[in-house]
Amino acid sequence: METEQEIHKNLEQVKNATKIIIGHRISAVRNADEILILRDGEIVERGNHDELMKKKGEYYQTYCVQYGEEETLWQ
């Protein structure tokens, strides 16, 4: 967790640049301007955190699993 926090801190210090972040944790991508969700090498969802949460698709499901939300579509 300490390493992840250090990475986030360093990324926030880089302004006005395109950054590509690959991660499995919502916390790694949550603040990105645009998030791409891939499945089998194909983009299945695209948007920022709020947009993807409203869609209640794969990003939302991952969020629910990682943050312990009770409402999930996979139940």
Describe the protein in words.
The chain is an alpha+beta fold and 75 residues long. The chain has one domain (2-67). Helices cover 44% and strands 15% of the residues. It is built from four helices and two strands. The protein has helices at 2-13, 26-29, 49-55, 58-67, and strands spanning 35-39, 42-47. A two-stranded antiparallel ribbon has the order 1-2. Strand 1 (35-39) and strand 2 form a beta hairpin. The mean pLDDT is 86.
List the helices and strands and how they pair.
Blueprint (H helix, E strand, L loop, with lengths): L1 H12 L12 H4 L5 E5 L2 E6 L1 H7 L2 H10 L8
Antiparallel strand pairs: 1-2
Helix pairs in contact: 3-4
Helix content: 40-55%
State the total count of DSSP E strands: 2
The low-confidence runs, each spanning 5 or more residues with pLDDT under 50, are none
Number of DSSP helical runs: 4
Oligomeric description of these chains: single chain
Largest sheet: 2 strands, antiparallel
In the residues, how many domains can be counted?
1
Rg for CA atoms: 13 Å
Shape: globular
* SSE succession: HHEEHH
Short description:
The chain is 44% helix and 15% strand.
